[in-house]
Amino acid sequence: MVNEIDSESLSQRLTDTEDVLLVDIRTPAEIAQGMIPDALQLPMHLIPIRMSEIPKDRDVVIYCRSGARSYQACAYLMQQGYGRVLNLRGGIIAWARHGLPIVAPED
């Protein structure tokens, strides 16, 4: 069972400057359309070879466009021993729908 967080809860945690790592697993073309501020860009297919960049000692929120791919990524990471991964329910679509900030990716 993958743990999930909704946009409002995530926004509140980021506002409270809690130690949360955001990971955007969308493709570079999707990310070019905008991303949640301060997210780590890690395309889904690279997770197995870049897993060392994902800490096990803090909460990690993974998101994609709609929440489907990130759900799969969370399930995969949990199988690899990650206990603190959360799926952003509804993905960046839900985030944007709530009027939360989206920024252009930095080159």
The structural domain count equals: 1
CATH class term: Alpha Beta
The helix-strand sequence is EHEHEHEHEH
Under CATH, the homologous superfamily reads: Rhodanese-like domain
**Number of strand segments:** 5
Radius of gyration: 13 Å
The amount of helix comes to 25-40%
Give average pLDDT, whole number. 95
Low-confidence stretches are none
Q: What is the strand content?
A: 15-25%
Number of helices: 5
Domain Rhodanese: 16-104
Organism: Allochromatium humboldtianum
InterPro entries: GlpE_sulfurtransferase, Rhodanese-like_dom, Rhodanese-like_dom_sf
Protein name: Rhodanese-like domain-containing protein
What is this structure, in a nutshell?
It is built from five helices and five strands. The chain has a five-stranded parallel sheet with strand order 1-5-4-2-3.
What order do the helices and strands come in, and which of them pair?
Layout: E1 4-5, H1 7-15, E2 20-24, H2 28-31, E3 40-41, H3 47-50, E4 59-63, H4 68-79, E5 85-88, H5 91-97
Parallel strand pairs: 1-5, 2-3, 2-4, 4-5
Can you offer a commentary on this structure?
With 107 residues, the chain is an alpha/beta fold. The protein has a single domain, classed as Rhodanese-like domain (Oxidized Rhodanese, domain 1, 3-Layer(aba) Sandwich), CATH 3.40.250.10. The protein has helices spanning 7-15, 28-31, 47-50, 68-79, 91-97, and strands at residues 4-5, 20-24, 40-41, 59-63, 85-88. The chain has a five-stranded parallel beta sheet. The N and C termini lie far apart (35 Å). The mean pLDDT is 95.
